Amino acid sequence: MAFKGRMFAALFLAVLSVQAAFGADLKGGKDSPLLRRYEGSFIVQYEAKEYDSTVIPLGKTVYRDGRYVFTASEKAEGRTTRLLYVAPAGRSALEVFRNYEGELKEKRYDILFSGSKDELGPYDSFAETLYGRDRHYPIPGDERTKNQQFLSARLVRPEGNVYVTVCAFENNFWGSETKMEKGRTYCRVDIVETKPMETKMTVVTSEEMAQGLETSGRIALYGIYFDTDKADIKPESKPALEEMAKLLKAFPDLRGLIVGHTDSTGDREYNMGLSRRRAEAVVKSLRDHYGIAASRLIPAGVGMLAPVASNRTEEGRAKNRRVELVEM
């Protein structure tokens, strides 16, 4: 049975057909200065954000626990550009893909993962797992979409690493629905320039923590920072940890849960483990650096299970990535 998403892909390409007929870039669309486009192609979808989170696949998709997941992946956060190009008529997905691959290698990117067709996973599971059913979702990758190609790459640089994903594919099925030529090649390119998120969350004082615990039994702490996909506490977390220690010393009978939370990006089980490791790191830091008995605090991780905002925006995801102190 083919993977779900056919109807959405048809509607997606129906929007693109209007721009394809004119053969010009989408209004407002522009190339990233970090990567040239394939000669003669033009932009049909464009999105740029100063800070966003992107999954970087490092392996194919497999069916596990009722859904498709990547065998390996990581997340990259920072300035993000998402582009969908349509290539000149007569160009194959493989030709376009090889040009991007060569360009990245010439710029000294490391290829993290590369595959085509069945090497990526069954049906259109790879594209749908990666891109979701949004307006950037490519055509399904089953036997009717020829020569689907994908790679993920990374450039290591002092000012912040750059991640690039490239997905090229030929439309050999939806032509009648969209009035587009069959065999036309599209190429989705995502570019992430990693950088620390500008910190705008105010550190919660010990007095505010005490008030929050009194009124609701819990307080969300946004001043504790971790690198993406890591549980090592960053140095800029010190003010928040100092306020937590001040609270715990002021109320020696206080016992609580340290609960780690993540956004919805990535695998659920992985996020559950990551959030728990982060909570454990907070307990350890309070014990080792501030003399707080670990027996007073119980670490727990709930991953993405208790959001306080929508995960559809970066602002919402930032609110969901937090540590909470819950009174016991």
TrEMBL record:
**Which residues belong to any copy of the OmpA-like domain?**
213-328
Q: Which CDD domains match?
A: OmpA_C-like
UniProt keyword annotations, A-Z: Cell outer membrane, Membrane, Signal
Signal sequence span per UniProt? 1-20
Q: Does the keyword tRNA processing apply?
A: no
Gene Ontology CC entries for this record: cell outer membrane
Question: Mind telling me what this protein is named?
Answer: Uncharacterized protein DUF4892
Its source organism is Aminivibrio pyruvatiphilus
